[in-house]
Records
---
Amino acid sequence: MSKYQQIKQTAYEANMQLPKLGLVLFTFGNVSLADHKEQVFAIKPSGVPYELLTPDDMVIVDFDGNTVEGKMRPSSDTKTHAVLYKHWPKIGSVVHTHSTYATAWAQAQRDVPIFGTTHADHLTVDVPCAPPMSDEMIKGNYEYETGFQILNCFKERGLSYEEVEMILVGNHAPFTWGKDAHKAVYNAAVLEEVSRMAYLTETINPQAPRLKDALIRKHFERKHGPDSYYGQ
Ligand SMILES: O=C(CO)[C@@H](O)[C@@H](O)COP(=O)(O)O
């Protein structure tokens, strides 16, 4: 019995939520779950269809991206997850999907504008889109560089990873995170829904205005408590 049985089981259950929520097709995407005490995380193996996945298939990886336990090759995005766990110690789980609308905004290299209260219930800023890889980065380790693209985007914009738990990576797709697997998967589903709404809003009215900051604050604080607003 693996000493990591518990996080393998929980990570497996979280991965199985992605096809159930319509966030992935075939082998797209992956969920990981960290054990910060052990400085490891469990992640979906690469290229395994969800319907064939078992808890025992989950691969245990350290925060430098090295495999600690597992028969299969870890997800091709493993080093991106590792960079986030290593630099953002309060996240417990990371989700990567290729959900259609969020990925379309990432491919368009655009932030998802905050047009309505559905978005404002979850975050008070446009969903950030990190710039695509530079030629230099492409020559490097792509997955590590993706992780640093995310860290650098938050640093440049002065965003807190504990407040904004989602990002689009330009020309790639979304990453979300949270204190646990439930929250990280929930954020992935919310991101896809607000991305779909924003696309339809711009299609119906290309001049649609962003939500007023006062209303963003009202809606966010109604859900998250007074003084929880952190602005754009
Ligand atoms: O981002 C990508 C590919 O662009 C990956 O998430 C997707 O193909 C899933 O890869 P893995 O099966 O996790 O190695």
---
Amino acid sequence: MTSKAPDGSVHDLNCLTIAELQQHAYTRMDKQTRDYYNEGADSGSTLQENLDAYKKYRIRPRVLRDVSKIDTTRDIFGFKSSVPIGVAPTAMQCLAHSDGELGTARASRKMAVPMGLSSFATTTLEDVADASAEIPNVLQLYLFEERAHSLKLIARAKKAGYKAVFLTVDTPILGRRNLEIRNQFKLPPHFKIANFAEEEEPALGDETTENSANQAKGRSKAKAGSTAGYTEGGKRVTPTGPITFHTHAANPTLCWENDIEWLKEVCCPEMEVWVKGIATAEDAILAVHHQVRGIVVSNHGGRQLNGALATLDALPEVVEAVRGQIPVHVDGGIRHGTDVFKALALGADFVWVGRPALWGLAYKGQEGVELMLRLLSDEFRLCMGLAGVTKMDRSGFVARL
Ligand SMILES: Cc1cc2nc3c(=O)[nH]c(=O)nc-3n(C[C@H](O)[C@H](O)[C@H](O)COP(=O)(O)O)c2cc1C
Ligand SMILES: CCCCC(=O)C(=O)O
């Protein structure tokens, strides 16, 4: 059911808020997918605090400031994004809807906002780049211990015209996600971790089919004598059984000196290197020191270190430490246009939303992602107008309770 608003925009009367979108999505996903998408690490307190942090701030509305022309746009990677909101990289979007990452890419294009593509997407980075057309693409990277695999991915991303890589740095070890463990989460066999589907190694993706097929052919990673593995409790663990994407996402050896310098060498100048998952002033200063091109303040949507600061609470110290030398973005818990406003007023240059895009996909595929972006954009514009702001800057518009 739809209705036309006085300004000509069309409302989906069944879904007027992100909270309603979440409810619709809930009934459209199977339990395994729902739990995987929605859960946080351990008790989920950081996941909750990411949301609650926004409630600690109030907007200080200014009046009599002629808000007849409001400019919500923001330049990013040489592109004018319609709003300072992008779709954060989230893995395996085909679980939500058959449109998958292509649906997200097309919706992002339609709404003129950038999209981050997960390394563990169920669509290839080339297909997503095609669907995105003029929209700048960002590839989220998990840097594998075996650099050859990362190198291949980076070369493909460059060729496909990706503008930046976001190196995820909050995942040296995978957080504990109890529902994922209980459900024995697996990617169903008809989906592929697409960017690695052609590779013999790493045998990423579905543990039961792809890997058993590899093993049957006598070329499992362990048999090939590679160095696949991870470190647990100080001990080196080399998986002898099927290799899963879980063991590859987490790279405990990641560090500034070796990896950031190397990554810059292999990505630049075609692609900018950013770090995603900074949560302290100390690391923000190191990021500037190592000359990354930008920071995403993130705690992985509360899926990694439970008990970590909410991202909005970490944002001010990062902004202060960076002193405008590089852009600071933030993600985690953004569910309202007013949240976007608050994050920007506290110094973020741009925000990214994760789960709401997955809920949009689950609700109506591409159309649902468009709806999600439209809801947030409309709310953001309305918030700016009512707060007396025609172009966002960071001064004085929010107060902490
Ligand atoms: C289901 C799911 C999968 C995710 N996959 C990735 C990923 O592959 N790489 C990554 O860097 N972050 C990943 N993230 C984290 C998001 O990029 C983002 O930081 C987070 O979702 C923001 O929080 P929000 O969901 O509250 O908006 C994932 C998050 C979710 C919920
Ligand atoms: C192995 C994890 C890959 C996807 C991810 O980052 C997440 O589920 O949070």
